Structure formats: structure tokens, C-alpha cells
TrEMBL record:
Protein species of origin: Limimaricola cinnabarinus
Positions that bind ATP: 26, 74, 92-93
Cofactor note: Mn(2+), Zn(2+), Cd(2+) and Co(2+) support activity to lesser extents.
Name assigned to this protein: Diacylglycerol kinase
InterPro entries from the UniProt entry: DAGK (IPR000829), DAGK_prok (IPR033718), DAGK_sf (IPR036945)
Length: 119
């Protein structure tokens, strides 16, 4: 049982180190964090259901997760070679697109929630 807790502790440490790295090196994570803070404040201030609030909060956290994955893709591509290559650009652009699509999904969720308040 103790070894399970030790593995959990080590994995949490690795995750924390990764998050610290991304926080220090990726300005876009800061932007998404501010967007999440504003989104969460609105989600708690508006008269919406717990399910709607949970969906909006979860969506914001998922955007942060996609940003972490995008950074991982960028680091692996750059580790292989910093030479400009078409496939490397496509990989990086695809990771960036994943973040943008996740952000658009949260925006769409907000439109639905706000539309429900108005109607």
C-alpha cells in the first residue's frame, strides 16, 4: 500500500514540475488563466444551474490541459530538431489548433448558457 502512495506522490511531483515549467515559459497559459478567472467569476455570479456552472468551469480547465499538451508537442518537436521542417510546423500548428478549438468550445458553451438566461 505504501508503494502506491509513493508512486502517486512521484507522479504528482512530475505533474507539478511540468505545470511550473509551462507557467514560466508559456505566456499563453497566463492568458488562458486570466480568461478562466473571469469565466469562473461570471459563472458564480450569474443565476445559472450547477450543471451549467460545472460545464463552464470544466471547459476552462480543459483549455489549460490542451495548452499543456500543446507545449509538450512543441518541446518534443524542438528536441528532435530545431531545423524548419514542414511536418514540425504542422505538428506545432495542430497543437495550437487544438487549444483554439477547445477555447471556441468554451465560448460556444457560454453562448448557450447566456442564451438560456435571455430566453
Amino acid at each position: 500500500m505504501r508503494e502506491h502512495y509513493e508512486r502517486l506522490r512521484i507522479r504528482a511531483l512530475w505533474s507539478w514540475q511540468g505545470l511550473k515549467h509551462i507557467w514560466r515559459t508559456e505566456g499563453s497559459l497566463h492568458q488562458w488563466m486570466w480568461a478562466n478567472i473571469i469565466s469562473a467569476a461570471l459563472a458564480f455570479a450569474l443565476p445559472i444551474t450547477a450543471g451549467e456552472r460545472g460545464m463552464l468551469l470544466m471547459g476552462g480547465v480543459m483549455v489549460l490541459a490542451f495548452e499543456c499538451l500543446n507545449t509538450a508537442i512543441e518541446r518534443v518537436v524542438d528536441d528532435v530538431s530545431e531545423e524548419r521542417r514542414a511536418l514540425a510546423k504542422q505538428a506545432k500548428d495542430s497543437g495550437s489548433a487544438a487549444v483554439a478549438v477547445a477555447g471556441a468550445a468554451v465560448g460556444l458553451a457560454w453562448l448557450c448558457v447566456l442564451g438560456g438566461l435571455v430566453l
